[in-house]
Design brief:
By secondary structure, the protein is of the alpha+beta class. The protein is about 25% helix and about 35% strand. Helix 7 runs parallel beside helix 9, helix 8 runs antiparallel to helix 9 and helix 9 packs antiparallel against helix 11.
């Protein structure tokens, strides 16, 4: 049921709570920390833990989903789409009804999405950064639900759909009809264009242009990679990617016991999910692939005209699809991932696949709205003015919505390629893309100054939701749900933020509603004043 942990490390092999079925009831064997007679600074926590255990045994939590640690070896399995949908209560008829809702039509070649791709109209604004030659520099596009990251030259390194890495190592190649060789875009040096809603690469070949536009929904769990091909000859577009469904730190890469994969016959899309079905990924294009492959592979090879996967024992799934392009053609590749189950993920995916351009347009309109509703500073310095607008956009991108956790600011973005790996074989720490106490407060001061009161209110609600029993405000809360309270400054900063929020917004109703949280935080601060000089202390409180 539960394992031990120390500071920010889960000791997954140290079983702390074990459940046994005995007759008609249950027994919980609880570890060494339920020692009631000794003095205990965490007495409130021990009492609540004991109460929760007794209520669980009494059946008061029977309406909630139960999770158990699984120590089975990691496995990768293939399932038919029918098997997958049945396992998560999405029967074939329901799948068909959802497909019909989003304009799936029947053709002689099978079922294809009734959605054609058009040329995207890039917005005309002064927030455009261009570079004639791409470098190895980092870039990202992000919404509340999905973070897409990569290097300028080509591909996508990682896509994070909180709280897990949905996809990694996304690569694209193009093969022209007059040549046998494939030009992998990671080996090219495209022109790049950076806008608030998108990252664009323009690849120039001797007889063709290929434009790639990467965008993420501002509030949905979907991303779109849009392609515009203009060439003298037809071509083939080859897309490949991997997924290990890496759950965020402090959990290890072993927390999911198996990966399941399938091909969705309704939309010719790839499906990947972990054993429970809670975390799922759909990926595919709004056209039928010429050929496709998915499995426990680390790469692919071409035999004659057929692409085959190269098997691996690593805990991952790799997929590849090849699409035919006409001389002037457009195509969208859509990626949707959630921790809300296969059915919800499928519905979100069909919605995105039916109208990919809407994701691009909505994101563009959203960032225009951010700028329109924020305090503007105009100076004689053009670079300062542009930089200020980009800082507003960049700050807004850190507002993350994790289903089951909440909406608040995270601290920073990067891929798992750099930084401490959490002590795990496979890194599960994407930069600092999780929730922090002090960082969020200092950033919220800025949000108040430029007028985004709603996000600051959400941040305060988030602090209230996860306030410790003693009134303390958390230091870190991962999007995988692990929280700890080892910072001394987050609590007094929270009190200051509540005051500043009232001063800026005038929202006295919210302050009254949340006064018990504020009072608990004040009481906690006073409890640290051991010498009664009215100066709070951080002794045994945190850094």
């Amino acid at each position: 049921v539960a394992v031990d942990w120390s500071y920010i490390t889960l000791k997954e092999d140290s079983k702390l709570v074990v459940e046994y079925n005995v007759g008609k009831g249950k027994v919980l064997a609880v570890g060494a920390y339920t020692y009631y007679s000794m003095p205990n600074n965490s007495k409130e926590h021990l009492q609540l833990f004991t109460k929760n255990c007794l209520n669980y045994l009494a059946g008061k939590f029977d309406d909630q989903k139960k999770y158990y640690w699984n120590y089975s070896p990691n496995t990768v399995k293939e399932f038919s789409f029918e098997e997958l949908t049945n396992r998560v209560s999405l029967d074939s008829q329901s799948a068909k009804l959802m497909a019909d809702k989003f304009s799936i039509r029947q053709t002689n070649g099978g079922q294809v999405l009734n959605s054609s791709s058009t040329t995207y109209q890039q917005p005309n604004n002064n927030l455009l950064i261009t570079n004639q030659f791409a470098s190895e520099n980092y870039w990202n596009v992000a919404g509340e639900r999905m973070l897409v990251m990569g290097k300028e030259k080509g591909g996508i390194d990682e896509i994070l759909a909180h709280p897990f890495m949905a996809l990694r190592d996304y690569e694209v190649g193009i093969q022209f009809s007059y040549r046998d060789s494939v030009y992998w875009l990671n080996d090219q040096r495209p022109q790049i264009e950076v806008r608030p809603e998108s990252f664009t690469r323009i690849y120039k070949f001797s007889r063709a242009y290929l434009t790639e536009i990467v965008t993420a929904s501002n509030d949905k769990p979907s991303a779109v990679i849009h392609y515009e091909y203009r060439g003298v000859y037809p071509a083939k577009l080859i897309i490949k990617f991997k997924s290990n469904m890496r759950y965020m730190w402090p959990y290890s890469e072993k927390v999911f016991s198996s990966l399941n994969y399938a091909l969705d016959k309704h939309t010719n899309s790839f499906v990947i999910m972990e054993e429970s079905g809670d975390h799922a990924l759909f990926a595919g294009a709004n056209r039928k692939p010429k050929q496709q492959a998915i499995g426990q592979f680390f790469g692919f090879e071409k035999k004659d005209s057929t692409i085959k996967g190269i098997s691996t024992s690593d805990f991952m799934v790799a997929a590849l699809a090849q699409y035919d392009l006409e001389m002037n053609d457009n195509m969208d590749f859509v990626i949707t991932a959630t921790n809300e189950g296969l059915s919800t993920t499928y519905q979100e995916y069909l919605s995105a696949l039916n109208n990919p351009q809407k994701i691009f347009t909505d994101a563009s309109n959203y960032y225009r709205k951010v700028l329109d509703q924020s305090l503007m500073i105009t100076s004689p310095d053009k670079d300062f003015n542009e930089g200020y607008k980009w800082s507003l956009i960049g700050t807004d991108r850190f507002f993350v919505n994790t289903p089951g956790i909440g909406k608040a600011l995270v601290a920073g973005y990067s891929t798992t390629a750099k930084g401490w790996n959490g002590g795990h074989k496979v890194n599960g720490r994407p930069g600092y893309a999780w929730y922090f106490g002090r960082d969020a407060v200092w950033s919220s001061f800025a949000l108040l100054d430029y007028g985004d009161f709603e996000k600051v209110k959400s941040q305060l609600q988030f602090f209230n939701k996860y306030q410790d029993l003693n009134g303390k405000i958390f230091h870190e809360l991962t999007t995988s749900g692990a929280v700890h309270y080892d910072a001394s400054d987050a609590t007094p900063l929270y009190i200051i933020l509540a005051g500043k929020y009232l001063l800026h917004s005038g929202d006295i109703k919210f302050i009254r509603e949340t006064w018990h949280n504020i009072k608990k935080a004040i009481d906690f601060c006073f409890s640290t004043d051991t010498d009664k000089d009215h100066l709070i202390e951080n002794t045994n409180v945190g850094h």
